[in-house]
Structures are given as C-alpha cells and as structure tokens.
User: Fold this.
Amino acid sequence: MVAIIDYGSGNIFSLCNAVKRAGFEHEVTSDTRVIQQADKVILPGVGEASEVMREIENRGIRETILNLKVPVLGICIGMQVLCSYSSEGDTKCLGVFPESVQRLRGEGVKIPHMGWNRVNYSGSALFEGIKNGEWFYFVHSFAPESGICTEAVTDYGVEFASVLANENFFGTQFHPEKSGRVGDRFLKNFLTINSK
Amino acid sequence: MVAKRVIPCLDVYEGNTVKGVNFLNLRVMGDPVEMGRAYSLQGADELVYLDISATNEGRGTFLSLVRRVAETLNIPFTVGGGISTPDDAARLLDSGADKISLNSAALRTPGLIDKVAGRYGSQFVVVAVDAKLSAERWSVMCNGGKVSTDRELFEWAKEAVSRGAGEILFTSMNNDGTKSGFAVEALDKLSRLLSVPVIASGGAGAKEHFRDLFLNTNADAALAASVFHEGTIPVPELKQYLDRCGVPVRIIES
Assistant:
C-alpha cells in the first residue's frame, strides 16, 4: 500500500489517480500507524512551505516521516519540506536533504515556472527507461539549489535541483503525475523500488 | 528552457465535445475524455475544457466529466465556462482540475480573481480575455464575445495579473474563426508586458501560424480547436515542424 500524506489542503486527486493507474493501492492519510505500515510513502505537491511544515508538526508526523525506512518520494512542495530550509515563509524544514530552497531568480523568466522543461540526470534508479534531457511538467516559484544530494538539474534562467536523493528518500521538483507517459514511467520506477 | 506549449481546446455541451458557430448548428465531435486521452498520446502539452452548456443539468454533467478527465489524463488540464463564485472553483478543484479559467465573472467582479488565487494559488487561476480591435483599441468583450465592456485588453490583463492571475489566455475576436493566423502584434505586446505566461488563441489555420506566433512573440502557448479536431494539423506533425523551425517544443516518442 502506498501512503499519500495528507496535509489537509490542495488537490491530490491527480496523484491518487496516477498511483491507481500504475496499479497500486493507496491511502491518503496522516495517521502514524498507517504511514508506518506502508510499502511506499509519498509527500504530495500542494501547499506553501511554512503551512505544510505546520501541518506536519500539528499532526505529529514529523518523526514518523524522518524514521521511515521504506522508499519516500516528495513531490514539489513535498520535496521542498524534506530540504533543510525554505525561504518561502522563512521555514526550517525536515533536513533529509541538505539543499536549501530559494525563490527562482533567473533573469527575464516568468514566475511561476509553469510548463514542460528538460531534466538532466546524473544517474538514479528512478530514471530507468527514461532518456536524459526528457521533458517533465513543472509548476512552482521556489526550488532547491544544487547540492550534494542533487541527482538531476533543470535550467530555467538559472540551474536548480529537479531531483534529490538521500538513501531511501527521493524528491522531484516536477510533477510526475502530470508529465505524460514519461511521468508515469518515473512514478512506476519509484513504486517498484525494492524496500530494504 | 521551458517548452512552448500546444493546447487543444474542447468545447463541451451537455457532455459532448462540440463544434459550432455561435451555438448554431452544434456538431458533436466526440467524447471529451477519449479525445483528451488521444491528444495526450499525440503529445499535446495541456488541454482546455470549456463548458458551454446552457442548463444546470449540463453543468452537473460537466462536473462528473471533469472527474473522469482527471482519472484518465496524465497531462495538466484547465476548465472554464460559467465559473462565477469561489465555490464553483472549489468544486472543480475537488473534481481534479489543475487550473480554472475565469472570464465574464471576473469582468463583473474582479475581486473573484483575488479570492480564488488567494485561496488556491496563482497557478490555479487563468484569466481568459476575449478582445476585439476597432479604431486602434482592443476592447474587452464578455459573455462569449457577444457583449462589449469599457475595459481595454492591456490594462485589464495587467490588472488581472496584479490580482493574482497566473496566466492570461487572450483570444482575438478579430482572428477567431478566420484561420488566417494569430493576432501577432497584440500578442507580442501583451507577452512582453506581463510577468506571467500568455496563451494565444484565435486564428490558427496552418502550421506556419504557430511558427510565426512563437518566433515573433514572447507568447508561451498556443490554443486551437478546429484544426486539431478536424485533423487539419495533427499535433505530432505540428511539433516536428516547430522543432525544425527552431521553436523549443516537447517531442514525444511514439
């Protein structure tokens, strides 16, 4: 079962459907026991950093998330709160990835960064069967700066980290559930990683 | 580099994709969900579904259709038509729409943009603007381009963005239905003026029109209906052509 963490806001309909289409059962939850029993955990991509962190604290699931040993995927804001810090709302985050999240500041580019952009990876199991430089769908105004956990980057005026990985934790700045067949493949790659 | 987007638009009337001029001789083009799936497989970057139903029953049908689209589609889609309150927007969000497009209601009550963007974020709000050029002034129209307003395109688009619109979808009423190309001059000005993406609509009739749009303006996306529904310009062929012309587009392997 795939646990999709419930922060209490936003539209996770598409993500649930994408998981369903990939052939996996899912449960939208903020219940510690359910999260601990899941084979995979997804932190979905809706909300604002300080708000999402507050919800994680209020629901008492900070330690639950940090102690997970199964594969965990943070999408968009779900990845940003796994970073060390986000300048959105001056928010201290969970610190799974040492990267920090800053507002996009490419020159002459429109914010939010909305649409399809290329993802260049330097090797990750999640990209199996996906060619380098493939297009994924993005919607965001903040992004992690590249650091030691960065596995893929994207250029939007400036380069930012579009995929992060640290042991069993993964994060994507793009939305695999909205990225066509390539996104479906990416999600499937995550959902079929063997748990340690 | 972000790709230039190609967006088929589906007009939905009582549950079917239709094509017609001013609601006369509406012709059924097919099932909106199946058509959406086919466009996604062909490499469309996004879809727009416009509800042109006239009855409450039709609106209910549309809501359940949005749910089916969200279950099926793996690319983003925008829904529009008849959204006049934050509750209308909320219902569509809950049914799985990625974005909503506001038009006449935003002209009547501009604060609606602030309310919806404030609650769900700018990325959720597209403001659609239908405008007509006469005597060197782009006048904004409402009610599907039938009623004129005292608004002017550039001023209204700027206000919409300052109120929280995340994208502007501009339809030139002069070009719409002519198949003679997009309103390149106005789109160039608009796309340079605004800090958010601009979607061009109205006038697509040939591949060259898309090329001219993307090479001569800063527009981010092009929307069209009949050239795609009738098969005059297949999406994969258009993408290959734009790629050869040096327009950054997302090509998918079939």
